[in-house]
Amino acid sequence: MTLLAHGVGSRTDLPIPLGLALYGAGAAILISFAALLLFWRTPRLGGPDGGRPLPGGVQRFVDSAATRRLLQAVALALLVLVVAAAVAGPAETRRNLAPWVLYVTFWVGLVPASLLLGPVWRVVNPLRLLHAVLRPVVRTAPGADRLPALGLWPAAVSLVVFLWFELVFPGRAEPGTVAAFLVGYTVVHTALALWFGEGWFARGDGFEVYSALVARLSPWARRADGRLVARNPLANASATPETPGLAAVVVVLLGSTAFDGLSRTAWWQSGPGAANDSLSGTVGLAGSIALVAALYLVGTRLSGRLAGQPVAVQPARYAASVIPIALGYTVAHYFSLLLLDGQTTWILASNPFGTPGVDLFGTYGNVVDLTAVSPDTIAYVQVGGVVAGHVAGVTLAHERALLSERHARASDQLPLVVVMVLFTVGGLGLLFGF
To answer: What would the DSSP string read from start to end of 82-98?
Structure first.
């Protein structure tokens, strides 16, 4: 079945029994935790300077200003094309390219791109090119000195705005609304970059920060000296700096995905969300994020108190352990969306303005192939993504506990593990319409 979510469609008919999925997933987390306590008694992932250096030619290509500007120019051209298609293309969502590009190909596709290539949006971000062009006009960035103190809090706000727009705003799928959002986002973040300096994008652009966090689980990283290396993805995630606002970003991602699942349940659609208005959706999104934040804060602070550690630093210390959990939920919710509804982008790209007789790639007459991936495969990927994300999260949390305590005890980590089990069971329950 399909429903209006993410601004476009989604598929939810899954064959795995709910009870089996819930019990099995919870058991997997607890068994993993017990195995870590028995066999992982010292830090093993290594520091931020480990890894195998990549060939010098690869490094020069990636770091080349010409390479980056070229990719940013291509991305900017595509952005202009999408906005133009939204304004001048067909009025119907199903026939307009823009909503499918924004909600499926870009937002969902950013995850596999970042996993495979690293923080790819930092390299191709077209707003960085716009900033470079306009920077000589402004000459100075008055707020540059204040930017470090903001941490990643601006990115958390940026993501909340986009996720509200994607999951709550009733007219989110209308092409004109998509165009307005893209233009507004471009203007606001380019202006903020002119005020705070180019460093704004790495701290305030929600898409770039999201890509960078997902890339923490890619096999590519940079040492402190700037050298590109191949490294264990868990080591990359473990080396994530404890930046202020990092916990807020991962909580926003996790909470919004929880609301995404909640909004698909029969209870929500026939109850609080029946009106399909902004108020109920806003309350639901805010409540989901607040609940995830409360559980995370209780788990991390209680673990810190039991370990005799300062409780105030615990949320930032363990924030990296939530990255694979958020990623697991993202894979679970969006896997089928990308493979099935993502086909629409390539179909419409053959005729972005709906011009009669135009078929650039010979795909405009195609229809979405719903057999491209089976319901069983979707179910296995979804359950596997959630469970693997939580197992990786437990592993990272255990590594952080060892780094901070050296003799981490089971009782010290148990509150956070219990929270992760709750996230697992609750996430799968919402995923399967519990």
So the answer is: HHHHHHHS-SSGGG-HH
CA–CA distances in Å: residue 426 to residues 29, 255, 291, 416, 422: 14, 11, 12, 15, 6
State both tokens at 139. 């000459």
DSSP character at residue 228: E
Query: pLDDT digit string (tens) for 162-186?
Result: 999 999 998 899 999 999 999 999 9
Q: Among candidates 326, 210, 322, 158, which has minimal Cα distance to 258?
A: 326
Would you state the pLDDT for residue 12? 46
Of 326, 315, 313, give the one whose Cα is nearest residue 159.
326
289 is a domain residue: yes
Burial level of 208, CB count in 10 A (0-12/13-18/19+)? buried
DSSP codes joined into one string, 129-182: HHHHHHHHHH---TTGGGHHHHTTHHHHHHHHHHHHHHHT-TTTTSHHHHHHHH
22 assigned to some structural domain:
yes
Please give the sequence-ordered ranges of beta strands (E in DSSP) within 224-383, or none if there are none: 228-230
Highest mean pLDDT among 31-40, 81-90, 371-380: 81-90
Domain annotation covers residue 7: no
Q: How far apart are the first and last CA of the chain?
A: 16
Domain that holds residue 225: 18-431
Residue given tokens 């135009």 in the structure block: 358
Q: Is residue 2 part of a domain?
A: no
Asked if 434 and 18 touch (Cβ cutoff 8 Å), the reply is yes
| Residue from 103, 97, 137 nearest 364 by CA | 97
CA 3 – CA 10 distance, rounded (Å) = 6
One DSSP character per residue, 117-135 reads HSSHHHHH-HHHHHHHHHH
Q: What are phi and psi of 222, to 5 degrees?
A: -120, 135
Query: Domain total for the chain?
Result: 1
pLDDT digits (tens, 9 = 90+) for 325-344: 889 888 888 888 899 999 99
